[in-house]
Amino acid sequence: MPSRLNLNKNYSFNKSKIMKKKVSIVVCVFNEEETIEYVLQTCHDMNRDAEIVVVDDGSDDKTPEILSEQEKKIPLHLVTLPENQGKSNAMAEGAEHASNEIILFFDADVTGIKKEHFERLLNPLTEEEPEADMVLGSPSETLINYRVNPFRNLTGERALFKEDFLPMLDQIRDIRFGVETYINLYYQAHGKKIKYTILEGLTHPTKYKKTTVGQATMEFIVEGGQIADVLLKNYDLILKRIGTSMEERGDAVKESYKKLQEELNERIQLLLRNNG
Asked: Options 3.40.1440.10, 3.10.100.10, 3.90.550.10, 3.30.450.20; which CATH number does 23-233 get?
């Protein structure tokens, strides 16, 4: 196992000058014996030049045995954690062990993977002049229609530059399922460009298909609490995000306020005339 990255080091990849950017696909897994072999094999077959990093977050089903067999079949970097520490910590571990300048986080329980999914996630970052700092890919086959799904920005399929992700590792380790919310807030607060895309045909199972109704409901409640906790504890990021948005749209916002003020003045004058 390679030594951890020095987070105090200045990692500086010039995004605009890298002609051929290399990719590390990070798959965080906990008890996904039904799908993990398919996901890893497909990721490898469709991305031969990519590094594959797998973080086993303390699985206690057949996942460890499957991963051991996969190590013999395809080149992958396996990181095994002794006990389950949550998705956010697994993502941090995966990022630390990733060798390349672009990281693609990919769920371990999806099906219907297509080559075009990787292209839609990675192409905006691998261009000579990247059109985004992070790409979020929403599976089309979910419980809620993806076109109106309010949770699509919490997707597990996301591609980003490692240099942007490393500074937040210590902040995300213990926030578990609040990790996507924090990452999104962090990027927005720092003026990073986020691109959204739909991954047609990709299926992400609901918790109700993976466990009992009672257990699934309890997990949803716990995850909702973790997301809410992230929002409450990171109010500074929310304020910074608003400030960044106002700066970016400064002139447009000022113009809108001016027009609104003029319209209000006109209506006040009209009311005064009608009641005079």
From this structure: 3.90.550.10
CA-CA distance, 15 to 102, in Å (whole number)? 10
CA nearest to 126, candidates 196, 21, 14, 49? 21
Pairing verdict, β 157-161 and 102-105 = antiparallel
Token pair 């990022």 is found at 95
pLDDT digits (tens, 9 = 90+) for 78-128: 999 999 999 999 999 999 999 999 999 999 999 999 999 999 999 999 988
Closest Cα to residue 159, out of 128, 183, 191?
Answer: 183
- The tokens for 146 are 């993806």
What is the edge-to-edge ordering of all strands in the sheet holding 51-57?
77-81, 51-57, 23-29, 102-105, 157-161, 134-141, 194-203
* Distance between CA atoms of residues 208 and 7, nearest Å: 39
Contacts of 158 (CB under 8 A, 6+ apart): 104, 105, 121, 134, 135, 136, 137, 180, 183
Residue 76 or residue 218, greater confidence:
76
CA distance 41 to 37: 6
Cβ-based neighbours of 210, under 8 Å, separated by 6 or more: 109, 216
Q: Half-sphere exposure of 117 toward its Cβ, with a 13 Å CA cutoff?
A: 25
